[in-house]
Amino acid sequence: MFASKSTIHLKVDPVNVTLGELSEKITSTGRVSGYQIEMWHKGLNEHKYLSASDIDVLAHKIQSLADKWDEKWSIIKEKKENKETAERITNNANRTFSEIDKILHRALDVNNAANLDWDSLKDNRKFEVKEFEKQPFIIYSEDKKPLRLKDKLYKEPMEEDIEYQPKLNLFDHIITAWKENKISEKKYDFDSDHKRWRKEQDLRESIFKKELNQWETEEAEFIRKQTEHNQNIDNIKKGYFQKEVPAIIGNCEQVLKNSQYPINFVKNFEIDFNICNGVLIVNYLLPNKDDFPTLKEMKYLVTNNELKESHLTENQLNEMYDTTLYNISLRTIHELFKTDLINVISTIVFNGWVEFINPATGNIEKACILSLSTAKDKFDKINLKNINPKDCFKSLKGVSSSKLYGLTPIKPILQINREDKRFISSIEVAVNTGLIFPTFTGILFPIMLSRR
């Protein structure tokens, strides 16, 4: 519409800015004295009439107003986005802290025994190769198996093809040498073309065979491992109901592995079981304070249009840390008792360990900071929905320092003797730097831990 005098390019926000119809301003004598247009901004809810005696000047006014509106809208939009960001982060923080606070209660609402579906532990995946660059001349199946070569790149050169027939004239028939020379040239062309065609075809076939062989080899290995894994699951299930110790331990490991926490920490544990007295011992690597979130609120400062973080105080973090560790110990015991389908576990000993950097030496150390032993019949009488975790832990004669966040080492009530696989009491466990904690690798029952 601005092309009457010159071509004018306008940059306006197509979402928010709307331009009305350009109209001429007519004097009483019928002369065109200028031009006018109306503009709206949807986001700002503003509109304005613009006019000028010259179209170029009017275009400049339009662009200036559009730029001014854009700048104003950007500030408002940024403030709105910052406010929404602050609200979103704060809401997420509140949800996370709420989930941490309900770590124990969440487990009470889950039927862990029903969730132990042995068939769900089996690997029923179809074989599928990793991503790779497909060859354009090979046809693949949906599971990426090379099926066959596509049609040949081009027709196989044949000696009788017209392009390999020499064009002989009268002189060629008279002069034999000329004739033989032309025949030799075409024979050379054919041999060269056919050799090149054969080479390309052989290369395609070689690549196809190599890919097919690799696919079949990988599929066979996948099926072998899958069959072995699924057979192990069947053996474990059978062994569990026959009260075999490795299967009982594996069942417990799977329960703890499936237990989901709102804290981002690596679950690491070792379990052993004495079938003679029904005592199950759990060495559990607890989260560190660094694993816990501290951001509780994101404040939006209107005056400065800034976001300001608000974190837990050190005392609040310490309180949350201690409460959570007591909750994890009680939750772990609850989950293991509730999934004892064959009723062989009479007592559980939970040893909670932490790994930390000793500020005095700068070395990474491990220490047991809480230990609890409880019988099933006694634990089952507790209404975990209404307890204070620390008070419950202490009432069960659990051992810990008054402040878990201080990482003060304590004697485990019962420990595993790695030499002869018997349990040893705390009397036999050193409390100095001789405390040795295992590297949790699941060596007692690697099968259940192998699937992720």
Write a structural description.
The chain has ten helices and 15 strands. By secondary structure, the protein is of the alpha+beta class. It folds into three domains: 1-101, no CATH class; 138-233; 243-449, no CATH class. The chain has a five-stranded mixed β-sheet. Strands 1, 2, 3 and 4 form a four-stranded antiparallel β-sheet that branches. The longest helix is centred in the middle third of the chain and has 66 residues, at 176-241. It starts with 16 loop residues before the first strand and ends with a helix.
Give me the count of strands: 15
Query: What is the helix/strand order?
Result: EEEEHHHEEHHHEEEEHEEHHEEEH
Average pLDDT reading: 83
Rg measurement, Å? 39 Å
What's the helical proportion of residues? 40-55%
